[in-house]
Amino acid sequence: MKRTYRFKRVTKPKKSIQPDDSIHTSEKSITIGARPKSQSQPQPGILSISNPTLSFNELKILPPDLFQMDALDLVLKILPPDFFQIDALDLAPCLLGKLLRRDDVILRITEVEAYRPNDSACHGRFGRTPRTAPVFGPGGHAYVYLCYGLHTMLNVVADKEEVGAAVLVRSCEPVCGLETIQQRRGQITEKPVLLTGPGKVCQALGISTEWSNHRLYTPGGLELLDGPEPEKILVGPRVGIQYALPDDVNAPWRFAIAGSPWISAPKKTLTLPSSEI
DNA sequence: GAAAAGATTAAA
DNA sequence: TTAATCTTTTCC
């Protein structure tokens, strides 16, 4: 398994980190900006990272070069298998804010839907079939399928083996690798239209159905990483399941980060839970 | 073996 | 609003 470190910013960066700033990495720190070798302490205007935690905002302003380096392993943490082995209804909101990484692309999950056992909208409702077998595997695997013969959908398998539950990733916000995302999407834009919709997320990650059953908790390929927790969460009924039983159609099992523009249509059906109003 | 439908998207 | 597109499941 990949080693994980916790990092902390020990000096304030300049107003913004420039892409051509030099980067120094070592076992215990990442330093960005010109820093004379003779000086043991970071100078003002230099970002130096050493134990513990790099914040999400800091992550976003790091220069692209850093993300092609092994140093990235020092600041991003892969979530362990245990994280996924819970009810899909509990896992779904927990996935908001988490990061999906494949090669130089990192996406922050902004919208999800839970699919569960005894749920007439869940692909597991027909039992274990060649396509849905991963859904019945242990939590933490990917379940990827083709929808309408055109679009691939990425699910995170939830709960214990044999349960048959998963969480659909419906929308994301770009964190790293914008150019690669735009290239794969065939659309040069930074607006939400780039990543709001489950088919778009898969396209941006370059994921096909061959990725179904891939382990998200092992380094390499497609990974699910820890990320900043959202402040408030919106809930609402799931999208595009009119064929299901009324109780399941109405179940509020769709979740999204409140205030985020990176949410797919329809948005009006999402609200703060009654307990927070 | 045939037919219907689908956890969608982009364009008109 | 609709076409595009194809795998899975179900029905005969």
UniProtKB/TrEMBL annotation:
Pfam families: Pur_DNA_glyco (PF02245)
Keyword annotations: DNA damage, DNA repair, Hydrolase
Family membership noted in the UniProt record: Belongs to the DNA glycosylase MPG family.
Biological role: Hydrolysis of the deoxyribose N-glycosidic bond to excise 3-methyladenine, and 7-methylguanine from the damaged DNA polymer formed by alkylation lesions.
Protein name: DNA-3-methyladenine glycosylase II
Annotated source species: Vitis vinifera
CDD domains according to UniProt: AAG (cd00540)
GO biological process per UniProt: base-excision repair
Compositionally biased spans, kind Basic residues: 1-15
Known EC number: 3.2.2.21
Alphabetical list of PANTHER family matching this protein: DNA-3-METHYLADENINE GLYCOSYLASE
